[in-house]
Amino acid sequence: MQSSEFALSKIYKRGHLSYYLMSDNRFDDCSENQNPILISVFSFLRWKNYWIRGVLSIAMITSFFFMISMGPVALIFVVMTIQIKCFQEIITIGYRVYRSYELPWFRTLSWYFLICVNYFFYGETLADYFGALVQKEEPLQFLARYHRFISFALYLAGFCMFVLSLVKKHYRLQFYMFGWTHVTLLIVVTQSHLVIQNLFEGMIWFIVPISIVISNDIFAYLCGFFFGRTPLIKLSPKKTWEGFIGGFFFTVIFGFILAYLLSQFQYFVCPVEFNSETNGFSVECEPSDIFVMQQYTLPSLFLFSFQKSVNLYPYQIHSIFISSFASLIGPFGGFFASGFKRAFKIKDFASTIPGHGGIMDRFDCQYLMATFIHVYIGSFIRGPNPTKVLQQLMTLQPEQQLAIFHTLHSNLRERGLIAPTE
Amino acid sequence: AIFIHPKDDSENQNPILISVFSFLRWKNYWIRGVLSIAMITSFFFMISMGPVALIFVVMTIQIKCFQEIITIGYRVYRSYELPWFRTLSWYFLICVNYFFYGETLADYFGALVQKEEPLQFLARYHRFISFALYLAGFCMFVLSLVKKHYRLQFYMFGWTHVTLLIVVTQSHLVIQNLFEGMIWFIVPISIVISNDIFAYLCGFFFGRTPLIKLSPKKTWEGFIGGFFFTVIFGFILAYLLSQFQYFVCPVEFNSETNGFSVECEPSDIFVMQQYTLPSVVQSTLKWKSVNLYPYQIHSIFISSFASLIGPFGGFFASGFKRAFKIKDFASTIPGHGGIMDRFDCQYLMATFIHVYIGSFIRGPNPTKVLQQLMTLQPEQQLAIFHTLHSNLRERGLIAPTE
């Protein structure tokens, strides 16, 4: 092999994703490689491709910052738009795989199910957070009281329409598409709602995980590009162990610094609450303990003789766990998507973003993250919400409230929290 | 029956064959009838054994249904040689069951859980543990992908998850309904069974107009007759069962006896009330009012759902069987097919009853609110105490001196 061809093929092995994968086998033909004009044209196109990827990466990150500055409402709309686009991409793949364009009703039914499931989830979330607003309006109160029943009835209507739309020759295709739609809903819609619930805990729970996943992507790519040698997994031949471990290392550092930067601002740290006076969202609060700087004594292993202890936000310790998850387990989401694309013989989910493929290509690692953060918050961070308990108390019958009052009274008196005379 | 038989004249003219077929056809009806009665009898027996036995029965049925559907998937995709896949499917079943049982048990066995230290740990971090277990299975799936079988493996992965979604969530809704009161378990299932039987009998005796192409055996006469008789049956069954605390009371775990107890003050819907009939009915029937349990009115809605919407679950299963060219889900029950064949109409019902109870019957549970109160920080408890105190005093429910 000529040296130029060897150099070119070695570069292709190193973490390189572009439309050049398709033209790889052209370079096995030595006669083409000897043509200097072709080499320079391909070099130019390859650098153009990197340039496009780089510009668009920076464009996406910039728009991410811009959307954060616009506040929670804008972010909810962005999440919803991304969800709809991902859903559309996956359903379109299903259509292509099953050549299902002529199935009656099916596009309508898929979108109808998407609307139903979104209605259900948004209703559940909004009823909690917009409690005050809902109490005021009469029709909203009705919708909130019977929300689950209305959602179920809407879903049933879609289910019955599906059964009635079964056509003799297309049974199997229709059931496949029904299953495909439901699995897509399960993945895309539930995860996007978990993202929104994480957002309501505090915008830091939205920004930090997403940034960490993006940084892991970028650092793993760069480390693989510069140092990549040992392949990681047969599913994704472009990934290397060097990229994996380098990405883990740099991502933990990045997450640590980012957590430090963001923990100082109430805008990011406070739960998003709906303010019924101003009819808007407010992010003002007393920051919870994990966002208050604390002093940690270093274990004696650390031979830092100049520092006995460090001042850290506890959230930075949490960020180490979040980064570890993103670097070690998150890539499995990417492998899953790679396997999915190979299984159905597609190059990218779609061609929405030049150089990057579709929206799903960018978000495939984010999905496991959204669920992980939600479970993490529920298990390790958030205790029960006193406002919510009080709300539930107020909806009980008077006799039940009295009973609870007396039980609570005696319990608090026993524990000495209330003076016996009170 | 096995006798969807050709209308071949030459065979039909043979009197020996005719009598043999008639005998076999009656034998087939006989088998179906005997097994129907056997299943109904075992249903009554299981009810008498109490809630714990019923939970075990539901779990057994769930596992059997899951196995039947997964086996069909294997056959359809000829997937016996896929590495790990049986193991992974059963592993996901165990994970999802662990998650759901943990959520339910943590609520109902609150007292028991507080006592045991390891159980407390499992309960506190339950969601995280379940998620970690699921992730382990997910990573195993990704690592098990084999080059030539990608598409098959993804199909089976999707098939397993859809099956879990249908079978496991519904069976847990059945158990949650059971905990509301065994009547919420018995009446819906009995109504679906009765709709099956009455629609079949009405179709058998009066059936003429086909209902839907998917199930050519179903007729409009069966459909409407089934609806009519099912409403009556549900009405009577609701009347019979509403009188007993054993059926009507929520199932609670008694920490002293370490068992389940069903004793309570029956809620309003199980107390006989007097309804004034509208004047139209008064003039025809010469009755001023009737004494009914409100639950009987609810049973009319439950029966209507079972008769009008429930069959769509059956049509879905019929379409599924035609799509994958199978006659029955399995051959577990002679004359009836597999367990899924008997339970396909029940699935929509379980979700409907759960949503129905949540929307129309059950208010917030005071015990649960108290539990949540006890897990708060002391400062938060004090704050809520004072708010509640002033609220109750304002409304005059507490004397100002208290």
TrEMBL record, chain A:
Transmembrane feature ranges: 50-82, 103-122, 149-167, 174-196, 202-228, 240-262, 315-337
GO biological process, one term: CDP-diacylglycerol biosynthetic process
Keywords: Lipid biosynthesis, Lipid metabolism, Membrane, Nucleotidyltransferase, Phospholipid biosynthesis, Phospholipid metabolism, Transferase, Transmembrane, Transmembrane helix
Catalytic reactions of this protein: 1,2-di-(5Z,8Z,11Z,14Z)-eicosatetraenoyl-sn-glycero-3-phosphate + CTP + H(+) = 1,2-di-(5Z,8Z,11Z,14Z-eicosatetraenoyl)-sn-glycero-3-cytidine-5'-diphosphate + diphosphate; 1-hexadecanoyl-2-(5Z,8Z,11Z,14Z-eicosatetraenoyl)-sn-glycero-3-phosphate + CTP + H(+) = 1-hexadecanoyl-2-(5Z,8Z,11Z,14Z-eicosatetraenoyl)-sn-glycero-3-cytidine-5'-diphosphate + diphosphate; 1,2-di-(9Z-octadecenoyl)-sn-glycero-3-phosphate + CTP + H(+) = 1,2-di-(9Z-octadecenoyl)-sn-glycero-3-cytidine-5'-diphosphate + diphosphate; 1-octadecanoyl-2-(9Z-octadecenoyl)-sn-glycero-3-phosphate + CTP + H(+) = 1-octadecanoyl-2-(9Z-octadecenoyl)-sn-glycero-3-cytidine-5'-diphosphate + diphosphate
EC identifiers of the protein: 2.7.7.41
Membrane topology note: Multi-pass membrane protein
GO cellular component terms listed in the entry, alphabetical order: endoplasmic reticulum membrane
Biological pathway: Lipid metabolism; Phospholipid metabolism; CDP-diacylglycerol biosynthesis; CDP-diacylglycerol from sn-glycerol 3-phosphate: step 3/3
Entry's localization field: Membrane
EC category: transferase
Molecular function terms from GO: phosphatidate cytidylyltransferase activity
Entry function: Catalyzes the conversion of phosphatidic acid (PA) to CDP-diacylglycerol (CDP-DAG), an essential intermediate in the synthesis of phosphatidylglycerol, cardiolipin and phosphatidylinositol.
PANTHER family reported for this sequence: PHOSPHATIDATE CYTIDYLYLTRANSFERASE, PHOSPHATIDATE CYTIDYLYLTRANSFERASE 1
The family this protein is said to belong to: Belongs to the CDS family.
Name of the protein in question: Phosphatidate cytidylyltransferase
Originating species: Gouania willdenowi
From TrEMBL, chain B:
Source taxonomy: Eukaryota, Metazoa, Chordata, Craniata, Vertebrata
Pathway involvement of the protein, from the record: Phospholipid metabolism; CDP-diacylglycerol biosynthesis; CDP-diacylglycerol from sn-glycerol 3-phosphate: step 3/3; Lipid metabolism
GO cellular component, one term: endoplasmic reticulum membrane
Tagged with keyword Aminoacyl-tRNA synthetase: no
GO biological process, one term: CDP-diacylglycerol biosynthetic process
Primary residence: membrane
Known function: Catalyzes the conversion of phosphatidic acid (PA) to CDP-diacylglycerol (CDP-DAG), an essential intermediate in the synthesis of phosphatidylglycerol, cardiolipin and phosphatidylinositol.
Similarity field: Belongs to the CDS family.
Listed InterPro entries: PC_trans, PC_Trfase_euk
Protein's recorded name: Phosphatidate cytidylyltransferase
PANTHER family to which the protein is assigned, alphabetical: PHOSPHATIDATE CYTIDYLYLTRANSFERASE, PHOSPHATIDATE CYTIDYLYLTRANSFERASE 1
Transmembrane segments: 29-61, 82-101, 128-146, 153-175, 181-207, 219-241, 295-317
Keywords recorded for this protein, A-Z: Lipid biosynthesis, Lipid metabolism, Membrane, Nucleotidyltransferase, Phospholipid biosynthesis, Phospholipid metabolism, Transferase, Transmembrane, Transmembrane helix
Reaction(s) the record says it catalyses: 1-hexadecanoyl-2-(5Z,8Z,11Z,14Z-eicosatetraenoyl)-sn-glycero-3-phosphate + CTP + H(+) = 1-hexadecanoyl-2-(5Z,8Z,11Z,14Z-eicosatetraenoyl)-sn-glycero-3-cytidine-5'-diphosphate + diphosphate; a 1,2-diacyl-sn-glycero-3-phosphate + CTP + H(+) = a CDP-1,2-diacyl-sn-glycerol + diphosphate; 1-octadecanoyl-2-(9Z-octadecenoyl)-sn-glycero-3-phosphate + CTP + H(+) = 1-octadecanoyl-2-(9Z-octadecenoyl)-sn-glycero-3-cytidine-5'-diphosphate + diphosphate; 1-octadecanoyl-2-(9Z,12Z-octadecadienoyl)-sn-glycero-3-phosphate + CTP + H(+) = 1-octadecanoyl-2-(9Z,12Z-octadecadienoyl)-sn-glycero-3-cytidine-5'-diphosphate + diphosphate
Top-level taxon in the UniProt lineage: Eukaryota
Gene: cds1
MF terms in GO: phosphatidate cytidylyltransferase activity
Localization in the cell: Membrane
Species of provenance: Gouania willdenowi (Blunt-snouted clingfish)
The protein's Enzyme Commission number: 2.7.7.41
Pfam families, sorted: CTP_transf_1 (PF01148)
Keyword Lipid metabolism in annotation: yes
